[in-house]
Design a protein that fits this description.
six-stranded mixed sheet, four-stranded antiparallel sheet, binds adenosine-5'-diphosphate, binds magnesium ion, transmembrane transporter activity, ATP binding
Length: 238
């Protein structure tokens, strides 16, 4: 089972402690959101989960495995960032297939896997197009497909909707939730947007200045804030 246990996690940059002694448990198949104002440490925590930055103390367990010091490519993790890092000279199909190259699959298997995942993100008819001919929302769906095609144990999403306009953002929000539920994929989603967090998440960890202020299901955070900070932050819609 792909649950995540974060214990006593601490991250410092030379003169700054971003967070210390973070403890969180994320359930297998849960849509878990890190919510909080800019600079509170959300992306840094996500990068620790991905192995893109080293932790100074504490451990990260994914299922049965301690992944704290594993290289990113050995963690079975998919990640999508705010900006779509697609290869401009590769088609949608080639972009998505790229992640599969390191796995020992034959051409037919690769085609099947890519076709299946493009259907899932509703991009089947765009397979032979190049990124520049796609909208922002479509590019993010390619990025999502690329991270899902390797069948990760956990999906990490860092503000994947922030660069998109409001209408597309809403649609992609629903698509991400539908896909996550269909795959029952353990997901950690980072956002500063309360409405996004409230509508998408099973549970939300509200952060401020490197601390988890409250960790609860959306309704509880909204109806029973445990602090002034929670009440104020959840009350202000963008
Ligand atoms: P968020 O994603 O919540 O906006 P970040 O995790 O990006 O916040 O940043 C948290 C804090 O850590 C900020 O004060 C930021 O300036 C600092 N920080 C992030 N990355 C680095 C880095 N590579 N070197 C030094 N400080 C950093
Ligand atoms: Mg960030």
């Amino acid at each position: 089972m792909n649950s995540v246990a974060i214990s006593h996690l601490t991250k410092r940059f030379t003169e700054k402690t971003v967070f210390s002694d973070i403890n969180l448990t994320i359930q297998d198949g849960e849509f878990f959101t890190l919510l909080g104002p800019s600079g509170c440490g959300k992306s840094t925590l996500l990068r620790c989960l991905a192995g893109l930055t080293q932790v100074d103390n504490g451990t990260i367990q994914l299922g049965e495995q301690d992944i704290t010091h594993l290289a990113p490519q050995k963690r079975d993790i998919g990640m999508v960032f705010q900006s779509y890092a697609l290869f401009p000279n590769l088609t949608v199909r080639e972009n998505v297939a790229f992640g599969l190259r390191i796995q020992k699959l034959d051409t037919k298997q690769i085609k099947q896997r890519v076709d299946d995942i493009l259907a899932l993100v509703e991009l089947g008819e765009f397979a032979e197009r190049y990124p520049h001919s796609l909208s922002g929302g479509q590019r993010q769906r390619v990025a999502l497909a690329r991270s899902l095609v390797v069948r990760p144990k956990m999906l990490l999403l860092d503000e994947p909707l922030s660069a998109l306009d409001a209408r597309i953002r809403k649609h992609l929000r629903q698509q991400i939730c539908a896909i996550q539920r269909e795959l029952k994929l353990t997901t950690v989603f980072v956002t500063h947007d309360q409405e996004e967090a409230l509508t998408m998440s099973d549970r939300i960890a509200l952060m401020n200045e490197g601390k988890i202020i409250q960790c609860d299901p959306p309704e509880k955070l909204y109806i029973e804030p445990s602090s002034d900070f929670t009440a104020r932050f959840m009350g202000q819609y963008n």
